[in-house]
Design goal:
- Residues 53-133, 134-242, 243-357, 358-462, 462-582 form the Cadherin domain.
- Its main location: other.
- It is a single-pass type I membrane protein.
- Strands 38, 40, 43, 44 and 45 form a 5-stranded mixed beta sheet that branches.
- The protein is mainly beta.
- It starts with 13 loop residues before the first strand and ends with a helix.
- The chain has 5 helices and 45 strands.
- The model is unreliable at 1-30, 580-585, 618-629, 656-663, 665-686 and 729-737 (pLDDT under 50).
Amino acid sequence: MVCWWTADCGTLLERGKEGQVLHRSKRGWVWNQFFVIEEYTGPDPVLVGRLHSDVDSGNGNIKYILSGEGAGTIFVIDDKTGNIHATKTLDREEQAQYTLTAQAVARDTNKPLEPPSEFIVKVQDINDNPPEFLHGPYYARVAEMSNVGTSVIKVTATDADDPTYGNSARLVYSILQGQPYFSVEPQTGIIRTALPNMDREARQEYDVVIQAKDMGGHMGGLSGTTQVKITLTDVNDNPPKFAQGVYAMAVSEDKVPGEEVGRLKARDPDLAENGLVDYRILEGDGMNFFEITKDSETQEAVVKLKKPVDFETKRSYTLKVEASNPHVDPRFATWGPYKDTTIVKISVEDADEPPTFMAPSYNFEVEENAPAGTLVGRVHAKDTDIMNNPVRYMIPRYTDLEEFFTINTEDGIIKTTRPLDREAQSWHNISVSAAEIGGHHQDAKVRVNIKVKDVNDNAPEFATQNEVLVCENVSPGKVNLIETVSATDKDEMAHRQHFHFRLAPEVANNHSFSLKDNRDSTASIFVIRKGFSRLSQDVYHLPIEINDNGVPPLSSTNTLIIRVCSCDSKDTILSCNVEPFILSAGLSTGALIAILACIVILLAIVVLFVALRRQKKEPLIVFEEEDIRENIITYDDEGGGEEDTEAFDIATLQNPDGANGFLPRKDIKPELQYPMRPGLRPIGNSVDVDDFIKTRISDADNDPTAPPYDSIQIYGYEGRGSIAGSLSSLESVTTDSDLDYDYLQSWGPRFKKLADLYGTKDSADDNS
């Protein structure tokens, strides 16, 4: 159906299949199909199309406006003519179409003259993208010996060009590498086998290169390639094969069953379960003496000794061994059989064998308490070699550590060394070794089990030693069962043998308890008195005789302890202790706790008082007898005395003039004495202490002969002594001072405290 718009008629003419004319409302636009080719690189913008309205009379009063995707950047419109141009290169793979909106407005008022209309600009495709294999490289597996045409893998390439426009995206596949083993379908990209009977054992991997070309594979089309690594998987197409037709092995006659005789292997080049091989013995005179197993790791057949062989009896054996695959592929069953056979010849080697005991083990019995030297039994061994050497017997000490038994080294007779106690050890399991005299010191061992037979040598006793509890408020006249006792005996009990119980003769007539023998190795204890008093007696000891009826009969007296307890009205035991009665006679628990609490409080008060006394501060005013005029300072460093000549002299640092070579100040008394300035001692009515101190400082600073009395000396050497006496002023504390401190009263309020201390002391001395 072809449609068009007319500018001068008010209806849309649409011509259909039957030729009738359809009428629609008038639309004032003339449209063209808008397309633009991608990747255009010309010097001028590409004309996309032209918009025209029927209200446009050509006088320039109409202005065309364009909006939507890319309007103003990619697409521009001439507002007078309605021509649309593309100003940039377009890529269909980035965006295939653009939706725009056009409208005609009055140029002077910008009022719409027509409703806005939407249209689409499509980007026409060109073949500018080669095919790509997005999932390459590929890895595929196919079974060996596959039929021709077996599908291996499908490879797929994609082309970003428009598949609906031309042949830009129509791809054709071809194989560049991998022939003649494989082929590829041109349209689908399916790789198939091209040769029959490809054998993995001959070659396992193939590298195939596949090409995809657009434009239907024609000249000028773009192409892309990918690699496909194809691996042949294994199938069971090879039978196992022995390398030799006959295998020779040897075994010594002294080998024990289970020991390995030799190995053989049938090789199968297949892998995994396809290469598994099973072995079995088909026939031969050694089938009863040898067996065959498989080492699962090495796939070897292991021939082992099943029964001992004797060189003197038979010196060689023959076996026929078969190797077969347990898993046969039915597709290749006709290629079989998947098995192979070989002959194994085994020769027996002579060996100096140890003696052989006539029995695999021996069991003897001996009564307990039998005297030392009692016969237990005899073991016998002989030398099976041709020499038939005599045999020597012995008991290894590690099997009879306490040396209960001894054996005759020549005849193998076993005897006891002391009486045995069945209750201590009922069985003795020892070993006896036999070695050839004059042989290669090989010995054989046999197990000897000795059972100690029981005799009645232990008296019976109580099975348990628990105390029996009875309520003190037993109802008067009521017979009560309080316990059922049983006995045990370390000796073995004969069939239908049981214990007999009775009260000991000394308590047979007691008025508190009675005993009844139940004839089943138990006895019942009853209370026969009205009640008990824990204050008078809280524990009763009831001796009971027990007889075992053995041969000879033995009996013993065992004491049953019965404790009286306090119970409630329902005979539920409340207490069996006597402490409450003891506490009632003395202090109660509450009283003891109160006393302990008082003692703890008193101790806490004492500790607090002592702590407060220690933290109490000393008074600020010193006592009169204390002398504070001297300060004692203790130093850890000691001077070297007169012999220390390496002390550091800091006189130069204290006098800058010493740097110029003039050193007038020394730690010696100056030869020239300056007269002391008058007025050093303040008069009584002088209070200008500040001027006094400043004057003294100025005099000391300007006097070149004054020694540096304040110098600090660090001594690293300690002398051996000095003839000089002590220079310390501490000793002057004990002497009377001749200084007069009355002038301190005139120094003002700042020195009032000092004046009071020294003035008061001097006054006190004068008064005394």
